Request: fold
Amino acid sequence: MSSLDEIFNPLLSLIQKASFDARGKSIAKRKTRNPNLPSSKWVSDSRIGSDMGKSLAIVLNTIGCSHARSDIGGCTMCSYLLDGSNVIISSDQLQNQFDEAFRSLSDKDGPLAVKLYTSGSFLDSEEVPDEARQHILTRIADDDRIREVIIESRPEYVTESRMNELRSMLADRHIELGIGIESMNDKIRTICINKGFSTDDFIHAVDVAKAERIGVRAYVLLKPPFLTERDALTDAKRTINEVVEIGATTVSINPINIQKDTLVEFLWNRGVYRPPWLWSIVDLLLETRVSVSDDINIICDPVAAGKSRGSHNCGVCDGEIIQGIKKFSMNQDIRILSSLSCQCKETWKHVLSHEDVTLQTHRDLIIDY
Ligand code: SF4
Ligand SMILES: [Zn+2]
Reply:
């Protein structure tokens, strides 16, 4: 064992224990939902290729992410398990959920996009049985208005046979796979996020998808716990440049928001974690929009922005900055962001250069957990 492993392995065990304990509370709190209805669905205006159209987002009600249900407790910031079901959902029930949500598109003109989310991985047949997955893909394939399909999955379920199935059933539609790489740094992804897969796993998934002309939407986390604002920003910039080099076709930035019963909430409650500044998002978008090729969209729709549980600034400028980030995500025009200003930008700059929250501080805290 190397000396670095001697430091990291015990720390990882502590992180996994704390994540597991937080997750345990989530499982106990899960509600009993109607298994024939999706957790949620919504239709919104959306850019589809170079045209404007409508997209239907469906969150299927499944048993939830295999990683979150595992003995290592899931990711440090994620409470998606709370959205899942406390009982096994049958294939028929999942098909009913999809059919119910799909009716929302019955009166809509094309072009359309369908986004298939679960509280985990659409391609995991434990969450979405093969029969249900094939029913859903067949219904999409039969609808000529649908031009684009977005699916989310952890990389371990991105196999050649699954990619081949997607491509052959959905023909020449634009397909994108959302994968939460979060950070390209293995240590950060492992220790700060407890993600449970390696950079090599992600690279392999991108290659397997590419072979079937399936794009990858890389989710990049802004400000994992145990990093300063400056280090988190540096890591996110590096991650975005690297995922694009590997072959990601879209980058979606996810600034942390404080979700219930997570390790991140535990730290936040004790005043040792703050969600990222909106200025950090602006800086990240401005810099990477210039460094990354124009044909790669960089988008961000920060959850709970402007609130204490989400990315926020001083409270005065938050609304304007959030609007700027949303507009930029639609049209990729950096002028919207470069013209933003507020006095609190100086405070943010001060934080970047002076914040010195050490890993050791948090480590002591988790030992007390
Ligand atoms: S972030 Fe994704 S992989 Fe991690 S626990 Fe949540 S759903 Fe699972
Ligand atoms: Zn401000």
In short: The longest helix spans residues 3-29.
